[in-house]
Amino acid sequence: MTSSAGHPSRRPTIADIAAHAGVSPTAVSFALNDRPGVSARTRTRILAAVAELGWRPNVAARALGGRRADTVGLVVTRPARTLGVEPFFAQLVSGLQARLSADLVALQLLVVEDVSAELDVYRRWAAERRTDGVVVLDLERDDPRPDELVRMGLPAVLLSGDGTPGPVPAVFADDHAAMTSLAEHLAALGHVHVGHVGGVPAYVHSARRATALHDAGARLGLDITTVPADFSQDEAAAATRALLARDERPTAIVYDSDVAALAGVTVLAEAGLDLPGDISVASFDDSELVRLAHPPLTAMTRDTFELGELVAGTVLSLVRGEPVPDVVGAPTPVLTVRGSTGRVPGVAA
Amino acid sequence: MTSSAGHPSRRPTIADIAAHAGVSPTAVSFALNDRPGVSARTRTRILAAVAELGWRPNVAARALGGRRADTVGLVVTRPARTLGVEPFFAQLVSGLQARLSADLVALQLLVVEDVSAELDVYRRWAAERRTDGVVVLDLERDDPRPDELVRMGLPAVLLSGDGTPGPVPAVFADDHAAMTSLAEHLAALGHVHVGHVGGVPAYVHSARRATALHDAGARLGLDITTVPADFSQDEAAAATRALLARDERPTAIVYDSDVAALAGVTVLAEAGLDLPGDISVASFDDSELVRLAHPPLTAMTRDTFELGELVAGTVLSLVRGEPVPDVVGAPTPVLTVRGSTGRVPGVAA
DNA sequence: TAACGGCGCTAAAGCGCTTTAGTCGGCGCC
DNA sequence: GGCGCCGACTAAAGCGCTTTAGCGCCGTTA
Prior knowledge:
2 copies of one chain form a homodimer. By secondary structure, chain A is of the alpha/beta class. The first copy, chain A, has helices at 14-21, 25-32, 40-53, 59-64, 87-102, 115-128, 145-152, 175-188, 204-220, 233-244, 258-270, 288-292, 304-319, and strands spanning 71-77, 106-112, 133-136, 156-159, 170-173, 193-197, 223-227, 252-255, 280-283, 298-301, 327-330, 334-336. Chain A contains 13 helices and 12 strands. In chain A, the strands form 2 sheets. Chain A has a 6-stranded parallel sheet, with helices on both faces. In chain A, strands 7-6-8-9-10-12 form a 6-stranded mixed sheet, sandwiched between helices. In chain A, helix 5 links the parallel strand 1 and strand 2 (106-112). The radius of gyration of chain A is 26 Å and the shape is elongated.
């Protein structure tokens, strides 16, 4: 198992394998990088030497020559602790990681306080040639990041956005269509007064979801009330209470995230409301959390792991200079009906 | 905001700032690395030039010179998708990240299939000088990783272990003591027949927990039945059903993880059992999931985020050659009693 | 006054790889 | 038969930084 003994072990360099194969380092480099200028015979001889000596590229040396760093970065601007709570992140990171590691590209993770710190990180990474590209989350209205990234020449892929082409490619899932189907589901169950615990209003995707719900509401004759909340469960709980306190108490509540939904369900339980007998609940994000709730929650299902893979694949293409569409379509979340939504109370089936 | 215009922007190198400050590159390097051989005057002049030109070190060049890569690695050997489910991981990673990024050290994440693939990754990282050190999880009995890591000279810190000094430093939380206090809690409530849905038996910490529970049981007169399960909720559910099917049905069940506990609770609910009226449930891992359950579950609480910070700090010390104790003590998880545990049914309070 | 030593600094080599600019020999062509 | 061309290969420079060796100067010491 151990490499052949002998000289006090020192990592073999391409000079070593060049000597071993009786060629120049240049030839080795060419052979390793599949470049022309080496005969098939020589190439096999070189690769044999590589295998025999157990050579591995020194990434630092490679990166120094202006090459790839074989690393993709992800900077998350959220309170560090929420990372551990939101299944979305963990799933996304798993997916990113899975796709990247298939190509032996590493994922670099960083959590920062705000967008300005995030931009600093990008600048540092670009300057240090630490990452070949980055994934950008939570696009905001008038977000400075895409333009800045273009300016500093750091390849980037946006997750989300509004589906319109921008300065950097975006992976886009149609939240609008998804939210519409949720609204239709509730309308079909006879609900009219629907509460909506939204996400951070500044986020483009949150805004899109709210808009979609209101659009669908107008069309279907629903009375939608959106109350924004941030990632915290406290805000989601407070928003739920606010909705319950309204004159026209909603008979159904839609939550923008699974964590918010769970917090909301707790409030509803404390208020003595039965699901779905007294009130229906749906979550926009599906996850383990939502499935494990009692009753399991109706939610918009999407494969976040797969989404991560898709995003990672897009970054890889971009980094390699392969053509990448301005907007990469991700599957639209699909409605999964579970026990938390039912017919509006007081109406015969 | 933008750097002063002029030459078609090119990253300033140490040569540029040397020219700008009127000294040699060597002097600049010395100044930047706080080495003697530069007068205070010159040093300030150099640092001023650095600031003015906005110089940033090129990590690749640094690493090439045999220096740090400023990166710490974490390889997780689990099915990639479970990563997104277990709050423990996400929290741990957040904590690691938080501590590392304070020192501008990056976290490299990789998920692999098995321990042999994990070792391959370590070998690659060591060969490529990609990471300065690694964090190792889920130690198993006769685990080859510590010795191998020592052999390849890659600094490593173990999370968990059994509290005895080994070839590499370990951060150790006393699961034994924690599990003991859980057992005492159940005994105090009058439970005698206690089920235990364990973790992966090969893991040292799972084994320790099981041992602790059985030890405490022997002392307190409990009848403990351990059924092992892996990370999957299916197995946890099956284990729960197995426990319910026993002649002497347990009046309380202890779960090794939060995810397992949630799956178990679902089974219990389906069986029409009321918590804690009919049966008590406790989870060894605390988390958001556990708190959001109905009723919220009694659990052993520890701050996993903080644990991550502690581990990261230990790796950093190790990498820098600072003295690190063989065993770094992490806080013992503390019992948090919630609504899921109550007096044994059929016994007067 | 000469020898010595230390300080402040520089020149130059080297880390492992890529890349540019060749060199050399053989082939086809007019 | 000389010319140009092409394929296979090499020499050498260069990426940005660290480090080793060494140089000149000044103050100290005998």
